[in-house]
Amino acid sequence: MGIPKKEAAQRLKRGNINFILDGAPENMGELARIHPSAPFYAGLLVRSRQGEPQAGENPAGKAEAETLAAALFEAALDSPGPRIREAAAGELLLPLLEGKIPAQRILNRRTGKKLSASSAGDILLTLRGAALYALGNFEGLRELYGEGKARSSWDRALAALAGGEKEKIREFLFTGLPDRARQWAFQELSDRYPQILTEIETAAMSGRFAVARSAFGEGLSQFRPALKENPGLFFEYPDLITDLGRGFQFSPANNEGVELFSAWDRHLEGGGGLENMPGISGPGASPAGPALGQDKIRDIRYRLLFFSGRIARQREGYDEAAEFFARAIPFAPDPLQEDACIWYILSMTLQDKPGLLPLYLPLWHNDPYFADILDIFARNLTAKRQWKTLLETFALICSRTDRATIAKYAYIIGRAVEEGYILPGEAAPYLPSGSAGEDFPGRDFFRIAFEEGQASLYYRALSASFLEEKLLPLQDAAGSGGTPKKKLRPRDFPHAAEMELLLGFFEYGAASFAPAYIELFADQLTTEELRALAEAQTAAGYWEKAIRLVSLYMDREDYRVTRRDMELYYPRPFRELIEKNAREAGLSPAIFYGLIRTESAFIPDIVSRVGATGLSQLMPATAEDMAGRIARQGGPDYRENGKIELRNPRINLHIGAVYLNYLIEHLESPALALLAYNGGMGRVRRWRAGEPDLPVDLFLETIEYRETREYGRRVLAAAAAYGYLYYGMSMEGVVADIFKEEP
Q1: Which among 570, 582, 584, 553 is positioned nearest to 714, based on CA atoms?
Q2: Short-list 296, 285, 191, 286, CA closest to 239
Q3: pLDDT exceeds 80 at position 353
Q4: pTM score of the predicted model
Q5: Which are the contacts of 516, defined by CB distance < 8 A and separation ≥ 6?
Q6: Domain 490-561, classified CATH 2.60.40, yes or no
Q7: Where are the domains of the chain?
């Protein structure tokens, strides 16, 4: 007998699927009784084997779990929610094509009418196509995909194979990204229809997949037969040039790549076609393919020049690379690609050739895309005291749309005026029209930084301290906006079907799978809907996911920040541990929270690429040193058998607080200590020795590591927010205290 419905629902909500893995058919039935959509989420859990075996239980093996998951997804096709049916259909595609689900059963289901109607969702149409393909009903498949109904990669794969036309199959495989549908189609050809592709074409397709998984040397070796015997393939299908370019870029053969691509481009520039093209004509060469039209030639030339630039940049030939990118700009297919060329040019040359900025700035399209370039430029100008160029750059960007960068430049200029590095009369002409007069231009620049909306909390807080103003970023600051609204049901939202699918992940214990599905719909969801999902992520303990979600709608033009959004963006998990350890180490809990959020986003078991571990991202050697200090001072000894369990929040937070306090004591400045937490105490001391006279806030702007500069800004902004939200402090006061230095 199956377990009671209420108990099954409680288990599923906790993510415990062992009662399903036991294999009792009646337990499968209980899922549908919980809700017709529940089998979908249970299927995800079963497939991932997230359930932990309990004493006396005998969970199914991997193969059995996959079969059970497929059965659960199939049951979810009966869900009343259209997005849930579509999601279940998507999970069934590969099992169906791999023969793990009877195809005829899919076609015979009572949902068959839904599966045949495109209005029910493209993926449901694709599932029917997969069933027809599995049954060998190619005539039915061709009828299904008539009249332009083959939309997705899977549709095109099935339609191409059903048609059996070599040219359409080649067109599908060699254009577009080498995604999962193309991988399946390629394997299907290899297994069932090996005569469709030639040996050279098969090698070229293998090269595409190798490059896609970053096996660049392997990909290049797979492309070589085509380069030798049928190089016209790359011009017939220019996406292969992109794959080939990436292979050359990240392999020792990059010189060869630049020479070949340059020769091809010069030939096309001279008006030549495939005939007599360098590297094509010659013994054994077979440049088959259609004549190249002008649009195709432009596309090919862009790829050749763009990847020549990337290859030259990889081997540090920066002037040569910049020339290639500049030549590629007129052939760029869209604004994004134009910006990519300009970004590469400026990233390599702007520091030595600042005159390029006024040349290229009017040409780029997406201002925030260049924020990192302008940040590095501001760093160099400040470090070299090139104040006039800094003023000229501000004049160029002050009317653009990247408000955070405008705030940064305005604040640095304001501070330079305050410190006497820039005279008031030198700064005043660069103020935008409508600003105040020449008497106090420093304050006028601070005002610009302060009024940049929510673009930069860091520079707003800094500017507020100099303007002697309170920074109150919340529209409901005086109210009770910290209390979440009552729980809303999917039907209460404008996108009810999407929200039913997405909120179901949290209702049925599958929250870890939600982010990928949320990403699919994020652009179309309203701010209120994204906020509800962030609430659900927070309640499930996925604070990092919630922070990312809130940042999506905070960036929207019509957004106005609320207290609840700030609380979601700056959450307070592990409160008892963080506040206790901060208090005992003599730290402000706002600063310690800012550090933890920036370091780990509250993921206890996170490990960085260099080995920093846990909530406060401690390196093992640092943790060993600090743990020894704690033990010698009479505290607990966390060293067991030469190891410290840094994934344990209790241990990690204690050691992290002690380490931050240690840095503050040795550097005599909370701001320098925070920078040293990221960049290392030795580096910060060396950097500071090179800039002994600069105030700490301007010193931060001169640090050579962009990661450390940005880290300092993020921690300080987060600390200001935590102090304001939870500890009765003003934002500008928190930042001012952090920047204090001991005399």
Answers
A1: 570
A2: 296
A3: yes
A4: 0.89
A5: none
A6: no
A7: 1-73, 81-172+182-189, 199-281+291-335, 350-467, 490-561, 575-738
